[in-house]
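Support request from a user on the community tier.

User writes: "When I paste my structure tokens into the form, the page sometimes reloads and wipes my input. The last time it worked, I copied everything first. Here is what I submitted, just in case something in the input itself triggers the reload:"
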């Protein structure tokens, strides 16, 4: 226990695995391969890694620093630094995002439970072609009993873990789930690479073809890096609040982002060789996981074993993210309202379940545009990914960089990491680069709502100007960094 009775992580490894688990989710194994497939493979991967370094690291360091300094939840952290000001609303966005994201994320996670069970029963082996597989997914996701039932089961799993607390619940299970996830990924990669014709998938994934590069590639990579690392929703502030003063934030942050990126990269090696080996299209869209891959498992030698393993992998990834989202909400009510952890988890988990029912029915009874021209699922997805998370990250960057202040933030990140020589560069990126770039994600998320040719043409023009501005900003960052090291005679060090 920490000062004031606040619980702390039991070990550095436990924290890194839990925080990496928060970042690792369906976005790594479902969304990342999909975006990579539709954006030309290796070109997208290269841009994505650059975005993780320039966007992910600075924002993650900021959230972890703010959480550790205040030892508070997403709302309490802002109140602690700037009491009696509207800045607590920035943290409130994170708590709201936790409610909303988990309500629909749990629905997709529920599908993974269902597919895990169905694959154990050998359902996919009974199909004769890809059409039957696709029709099965449509019927499965439209079935209200299965959709709501598996959604409920996933929420119960999250609640059972979070109710145990930080050490006994989140940390303990992260130490089990994350190594299991990596183990299944490695087994899946080995099997995929032994398939005839799999090397075409490897080439697609690691050898860039710049003819596929476009402005959309850049902005989708920005959004994916930002979404994948669980930034802007208070997860890292909350997890950072359970850190001790001795923890090395830069080193821990790099481990977290590195493990998250590694999982996405390994998922690509598990998926694309198999996709190419069976002559399927890599740009399979969101149905890549629930339609294309079951079709592969249907005909793959050993598919009866690897199908349930793969969907267990998806379930574990979903679970590690789901418990972090529930913890954001839980920490707020425990810290700010004085509720017990058990009471908070039972009440908020139940509310989130009921909030998610419309999303669970969005592929069946509610598969129609009823909320601002969208299904409930699509509305919540767009609201959080396109608006709440980018806005939350901009506010965090501005708050840490300007309101909390350069000096205090710098001292905080170097507490526990006195050899961290890149604090000035971190603050430079946080104050000038991150807000501008994340604002672009917000703007293009808004413009994507309009399908008229005039708006699309305007979006393309705006993208060109923003790319020029981003390149100029990168030039400034490069010049500033070179000047900093040459003037100080510094060596690169964490």
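"...and here is what came back when it finally went through:"
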């Amino acid at each position: 226990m920490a000062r004031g009775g606040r619980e702390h992580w039991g070990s550095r490894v436990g924290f890194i695995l839990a925080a990496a688990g928060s970042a690792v989710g369906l976005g790594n194994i479902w969304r990342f391969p999909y975006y990579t497939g539709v954006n030309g493979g290796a070109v997208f991967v290269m841009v994505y890694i650059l975005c993780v370094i320039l966007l992910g690291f600075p924002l993650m360091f900021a959230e972890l620093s703010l959480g550790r300094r205040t030892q508070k939840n997403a709302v309490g952290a802002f109140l602690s630094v700037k009491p009696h000001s509207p800045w607590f609303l920035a943290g409130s966005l994170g708590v709201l995002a936790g409610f909303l994201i988990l309500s629909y994320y749990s629905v997709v996670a529920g599908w993974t439970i269902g597919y895990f069970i169905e694959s154990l029963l050998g359902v996919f082996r009974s199909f004769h072609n890809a059409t039957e597989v696709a029709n099965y997914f449509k019927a499965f996701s439209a079935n209200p009993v299965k959709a709501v039932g598996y959604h409920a089961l996933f929420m119960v799993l999250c609640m059972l873990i979070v109710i145990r607390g930080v050490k006994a619940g989140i940390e303990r299970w992260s130490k089990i789930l994350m190594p299991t996830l990596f183990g299944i990924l490695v087994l899946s990669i080995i099997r995929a690479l032994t398939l005839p014709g799999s090397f075409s998938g490897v080439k697609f994934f690691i050898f860039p073809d710049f003819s596929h590069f476009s402005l959309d590639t850049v902005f989708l990579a920005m959004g994916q890096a930002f979404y994948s690392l669980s930034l802007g929703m208070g997860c890292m502030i909350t997890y950072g609040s359970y850190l001790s003063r001795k923890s090395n934030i830069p080193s821990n942050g790099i481990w977290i982002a590195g493990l998250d990126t590694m999982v996405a990269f390994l998922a690509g090696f598990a998926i694309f060789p198999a996709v190419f080996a069976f002559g399927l299209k890599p740009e399979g869209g969101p149905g890549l996981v629930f339609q294309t891959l079951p079709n592969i498992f249907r005909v793959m030698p050993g598919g009866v074993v690897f199908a349930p393993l793969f969907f267990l992998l998806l379930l574990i990834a979903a679970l590690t993210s789901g418990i972090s989202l529930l913890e954001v909400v839980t920490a707020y009510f425990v810290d700010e309202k004085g509720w017990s952890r058990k009471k908070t988890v039972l009440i908020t988990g139940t509310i989130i379940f009921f909030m998610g029912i419309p999303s669970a029915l969005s592929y069946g009874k509610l598969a129609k545009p009823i909320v601002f021209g969208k299904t409930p699922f699509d509305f919540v997805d767009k609201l959080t990914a396109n608006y709440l998370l980018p806005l939350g990250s901009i506010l965090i960057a501005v708050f840490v960089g300007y309101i909390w202040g350069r000096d205090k933030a710098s001292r905080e990140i170097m507490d526990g990491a006195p050899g961290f020589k890149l604090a000035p560069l971190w603050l430079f990126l946080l104050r000038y680069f991150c807000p501008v770039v994340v604002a672009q994600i917000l703007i293009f998320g808004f413009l994507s709502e309009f399908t008229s040719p005039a708006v699309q043409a305007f979006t393309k023009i705006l993208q060109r100007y923003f790319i020029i501005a981003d390149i100029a900003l990168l030039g400034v960052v490069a010049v500033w960094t070179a000047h900093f090291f040459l003037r100080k005679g510094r060596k690169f060090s964490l």
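Agent notes: The reload is a front-end session timeout and is unrelated to the input. The chain has one domain: 3-488. The two ends are 28 Å apart (CA to CA). Escalated to web team.
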